[in-house]
Amino acid sequence: xxxxxxxxxxWMIRLRARARKCERIEAHVSSLLGDSIRNFxxxxxxxxxxxxxxxxxxxxxxxxxxxxxxxxxxSIQVGSKAEQRLVELKAKVTDLDAVRRRxxxxxxxxxxxxxxxxxxxxxxxxxxxxxxxxxxxxAKLVYYxxxxxxxxxxxDVFILEIQEPRAIKNLLQKILKTKVVVDKTREMFRCQxxxxxxxxxxxQIHLDDVKRLGAFxxxxxxxxxxxxxxxxxxLKNLMNILGIKTSQLQRFSYSxxxxxxxx
Length: 263
Prior knowledge:
By secondary structure, the chain is α+β, with helices and mostly antiparallel strands. It has helices at about 20-35, 95-100, 165-175, 230-240, 255, and strands at about 10-15, 35-40, 50-55, 65-70, 75-80, 85-95, 110-120, 125-135, 140-145, 155-160, 180-195, 200-210, 215-220. The protein has a domain at about 10-80: Double Stranded RNA Binding Domain (2-Layer Sandwich), CATH 3.30.160.
C-alpha cells in the first residue's frame, strides 16, 4: 500500500528535524527497534523518504515512523482509531480525603491507584507524552490538543498502547527535547447516574497527588460533536456536587505547571 503524506487517514505528529539529523534519526530507528521494523520505502530523487513500521499487537495497528529528508521532517503516524474526543477539567484542591468522601454522593466506583510517570516532549503543536505506569510493562504514547482555558474544555486525544516502551522512549529522547517529567500517584474512580445529569454516561474522576505540584482533581468523559455542550454541563454539575469552586479550576496541563513550581 502506498502512503501519501497529503492524503492519509492517519494521526500525524510533524516534528521538525534538521536535514543533517536525518541519517542519525534513521540510524536510531534501526538500531533501537532492530528486527521489529520493516523498511517500506526506498529513498527516491523526487521525495527522499524512509518509512519504518513498528509492529504492535493491539486494536489500533502499527506505528509508522517516517523520515522525510526533503522537508526535514520526522512524522509519527498511527491508525485513526487511536483518536478520542474528551471533555475534561482540572482543579487544584487542598484535601483529597474530603473529595474522596464526597464521591459517595455520586456512587463512584474505585478503579485503583497507580503511579504514573509522564515524559513530555517538546513539539511544535499540541502536547506529546509517553506515560509509563509503575509495575506495568505497557505504556501509552499520547498526543493531545487542548485550549488553555479554565473550566470544562474539549480535548482531542490520540493514544497508542506500547508493549515495549523502552525503544520508543529512547528514540524520542534522542530525536526530541524532553520538556518535563511529571511524577504522580493517581487514584481513579468511575461514576454513572442521573445525580450528575445523565443516566447513560460515565465520568472518570482522578484524584492526583503530583510531586512538586500538590493535589488535584480531574474529570474526563468521552464526548462527541453532538453531545459536547451537554457533557460540559455534566462536569459542571459534578463540580457542584463535589464542592469544587470555579476559582480552583486550572487552565494548564501539569507539564505547563511544573516549570513554575517552587523546587
